[in-house]
Amino acid sequence: MTETVVIKLGGNATEQLTPQFFDQLARWRAAGVRVLMIHGGGPQINAWSERLGLTVHKRGGIRVTDADTLAVTQAVLLGVVQPALCLTLHQHGLPVMGLNTTDNALLTGTLLDQQLYGAVGKITQVNTTVLNRVLADYVGVLAPLAQTSDGTMLNVNADMAAVAVARALGATRLMMVTDVPGVIVNGTTAATIDPQQASRWVQQRIITSGMEAKINAAIDCVHAGTQVNITNDVTRPGTMVLSAAM
Ligand SMILES: Nc1ncnc2c1ncn2[C@@H]1O[C@H](COP(=O)(O)OP(=O)(O)O)[C@@H](O)[C@H]1O
Ligand SMILES: CC(=O)N[C@@H](CCC(=O)OP(=O)(O)O)C(=O)O
């Protein structure tokens, strides 16, 4: 069975890629491991929204997305973040294909809660037929946007998108690459985290903001049988998410 690694690259992480990152991708490709990246772009969307005079509004790490914010989100993800990432991967000798939901309805979704979040979705279907074809030859680079069954665009949290895609592809591993080395507890990176610890650390406000959403998404994925690591370096395990206390 072909091994698949899904890498979620947070918006900050896309701008801090190291030579080790590209070397690891090349090693995976050489070993026949398929690689799909889901990129974020939250900080870049914030910066462009502010430049364009739009107020940035988030609820629990989810961007409240009105029509103007959706337009800026699409423009930044598909016009700024994704091309820069694809260019860098190509310059490092990797065969790369930029992807977005409108290519053959790659990601179908439904509204998460329109009253609370506006045009924000959760993914209900992944076009694995097309993704499998692309991944046979390319490192796929997919944006966290989905469409409803009637073609309305939805903004999707990139951690949630990565989990949905990793589950649909039956990925062996999901690496959530962010701007911290893992889940930090009392100044140290935790080697592992299980659901009980996660809820305790959330209650104690040790885990907050983006990390809380990330852990919740990661736990969903581990339950589906994919190994999940939260790290700032694909060559390091960072924090491994466990499905239950060991
Ligand atoms: N216990 C924690 N350990 C590490 N990071 C944490 C913790 N609690 C909150 N965070 C925050 O979570 C952030 C990572 O989540 P997020 O900003 O959503 O990343 P990304 O954009 O890569 O998805 C960290 O930069 C940090 O500010
Ligand atoms: C609905 C929602 O919140 N979508 C995210 C999509 C990008 C993202 O998740 O980027 P990071 O991984 O860099 O945070 C947003 O608009 O910021």
From TrEMBL:
Q: Pfam families recorded for this chain?
A: AA_kinase
Its BP terms in the Gene Ontology are: L-arginine biosynthetic process
Q: What is its EC number?
A: 2.7.2.8
Q: Which Gene3D superfamilies did the record assign?
A: Acetylglutamate kinase-like (3.40.1160.10)
Q: Name one GO cellular component term.
A: cytoplasm
Q: Name one GO molecular function term.
A: acetylglutamate kinase activity
Going by the entry's taxonomy, the superkingdom of the source organism is recorded as Bacteria
Keyword annotations for this protein, in alphabetical order, are: Amino-acid biosynthesis, Arginine biosynthesis, ATP-binding, Kinase, Nucleotide-binding, Transferase
Reaction catalysis annotation: N-acetyl-L-glutamate + ATP = N-acetyl-L-glutamyl 5-phosphate + ADP
Biological pathway? Amino-acid biosynthesis; L-arginine biosynthesis; N(2)-acetyl-L-ornithine from L-glutamate: step 2/4
The record, for InterPro entries, names: AceGlu_kinase-like_sf (IPR036393), AcgluKinase_fam (IPR004662), Asp/Glu/Uridylate_kinase (IPR001048)
The chain positions of domain Aspartate/glutamate/uridylate kinase read 4-232
Return the broad EC class. transferase
What PANTHER family has UniProt attached to this entry? N-ACETYLGLUTAMATE SYNTHASE (PTHR23342), N-ACETYLGLUTAMATE SYNTHASE, MITOCHONDRIAL (PTHR23342:SF0)
Protein name, entry field: acetylglutamate kinase
Q: Could you tell me which species this protein originates from?
A: Lacticaseibacillus pantheris DSM 15945 = JCM 12539 = NBRC 106106
What is the phylogenetic placement of the source species in the record? Bacteria, Bacillati, Bacillota, Bacilli, Lactobacillales
